[in-house]
Amino acid sequence: MSTERATGGAAGWSRDARDLPRPPIPRAPVRWTSAPPGALDLLAHARRALAEAAEASAPNERFAAAHLAALRTTAAVLAARARPEEEKPGRRRPPRSAWQLLPQVAPELTEWAAYFASGARKRAAAEAGLPNAVTAREADDLVRDVEVFIRLVVRLLGLPPVTVVPPQAG
User: Over 80: is that where the pLDDT of 103 sits?
Assistant: First the structure.
């Protein structure tokens, strides 16, 4: 056998399927006309929570509200894409967090899930009112990151872009 055939051609590329990068799992976008109303409601709640985070003066409040917005955004993805799993008789799965489920229904959001999961303890500390649970910089960074995450999810689900609406005074 010639070297050209053994290596897959003159360029030396291997034709072994194991060497080829795997394409992403095809996912049909969820259109706003077919998106479950629950997913749309969760995104609306996420946008309001993010607006509240942006207006909060205390870092703990900003961080907690922004993290909640990320959690609601994740819940919207799960509501739009998740399919019920068939349970085997006599066997129940232990409960899993939204951050663990997100990569299963949207593999392209795996890094986001890990990022937000890593902030869950800080959110709990911030919600508990522990002094210095988060810094102002951490809170500001999370608010910006969640804004990007929401925009990404809106595009991922094929929804029309919507700007974050600040909460109404009252």
Answer: yes
